Amino acid sequence: METELGERIAASFRQLDDFIGHWRASHPTTRLYCQSACSACCQLAVHCSLPEAAIIAVELDQNQQRALGIYVERLHVASGELKSLPEYLRRHRLDLGPCPFLGADRSCTIYGQRPLSCRALLATRPPGWCGIDLSELDPLDQRLFQQSLDPQLVAWPTHYLASSQDLARQLEQQLLVSMQQACGWGASGNLPLLVWLTRQHALHRCSSDQASALLDRLKLSTSPLINLITDQH
Ligand code: SF4
Asked: What is the reported pTM?
């Protein structure tokens, strides 16, 4: 199962990367601001499927493991108060710091295995806009920003390209369906937490009942951090 899912993940990454390459070539006048060592979006909460996290979990060096442990500890402290997805996203942006896989030189240390959601996030505005909570902007600034966006191009009201995110969501959904067909259940959620659960508790090898029991025990079953998909859901 793991080999087959690994091949599907690699094919999904290729499909999305090819799509983005073709998109860039066919929109030469549309500027995308993403570039090497720009880590503005790595401050945001990152979502992925469990199969993608399981691939990342296989090979982490000591620095990555240490950074992962620190991040999960901080997330654990914060998660006691998290009741909803918007609250989680807001809190993450403000308090939790960058993704633990962001290197000291501001580049991604798991670049080849970074999940679909990271690959798909392409900014049509300068990086300063990537970390901003629009709901906290002055209403006039918020309106001016949103009026400056091309609604045909972006996932409005954000400045991120819509088409790459749409494809990434479809591909992630297909990975989850593949996992459900192979294992009877699936999960998606916070990327570092899923990597940690894979390393510490072999979440990806659990049965559906074992996964539910583990998430219950860790008080994650009702948390916005993890979405468990079983036959009952
Ligand atoms: S996985 Fe890499 S690209 Fe994605 S948020 Fe983390 S450091 Fe950034």
From this structure: 0.93
- Tell me the C-alpha distance between 37 and 21, whole Å: 19
Q: Which of 200, 172, 199 is closest to 186 using CA atoms?
A: 172
Q: Does residue 19's CB lie within 6 angstroms of at least one atom of ligand 1?
A: no
Q: Which atom of ligand 1 is nearest to the CA of 44?
A: 5
Is any ligand 1 atom within 6 A of the Cβ of residue 211?
A: no
Average pLDDT for the chain = 92
> Once rounded to an integer, what is the mean pLDDT over residues 206-228?
92
d(CA 131, CA 40): 6
Please tell me if the CB atom of residue 42 comes closer than 6 angstroms to any atom of ligand 1.
Answer: yes
Ligand 1 neighbourhood includes 46 CB (under 6 angstroms): yes
Beta strand pairing call for 186-190 and 226-229:
antiparallel
> Do the beta carbons of residue 38 and residue 182 sit within 8 Å?
no
Does 160 have pLDDT greater than 60?
yes
**Banded pLDDT at 1 (limits 50, 70, 90):** low
* Ligand 1, atom 4, residue with closest C-alpha: 118
Residue 174 Cα to chain centre, angstroms: 16
Per the model's pLDDT, the better-predicted residue between 140 and 82 turns out to be 140
185 lines ligand 1 (CB under 6 A): no
Residue 161's alpha-carbon distances to 11, 34, 131, 145, 165, in angstroms, are: 21, 11, 16, 15, 7
